Amino acid sequence: MADVVESEGRKIVVAVDGGEESTFALQWCLRNFVSSSATTSSPRDTLVLVYARPYPPVYSAMDGTGVLFSEEITASLDKYSRDLADSVMNRAQKICKDYNNVKVDVKVTQGDAREVLCGTVEKIKADVLVMGSHGYGFIKRALIGSVSDHCSKNAKSSVVIVKRPAA
User: Which residue has the higher pLDDT, 112 or 166?
Assistant: First the structure.
């Protein structure tokens, strides 16, 4: 008789950034991908919440206006960035608290959001990447780029882009 191998659930990466769009995408993912009524015999999904902290700006000892940047200022900016990441992740984890049948992992990584998300998907061999959309128009996307557009073209998994309904 063959041994029964417990199958692993899906690995779902959700991009979180503290904005309303990513919060809506996380809630949508929980409602549509993770059933709160799953049985204990069904495989347990893993939800990986990913926040990409931007790299700190690089300042020379004196900027172009003649302002001198001290180590205290740059340390303060870095602390703010870490505190913001902690706050965003705490809020995201609270949204997930009612879903006991899903394992929630948190990954805070420093870097460009496009590369962090695609890299995480590839590294953990995620089944799907779920992310919100800011709904930028053509010109704004062309000027600043679109994280969701980049990920839809480059992620090594399926990508679900969740648009928040207009209010």
Answer: 112
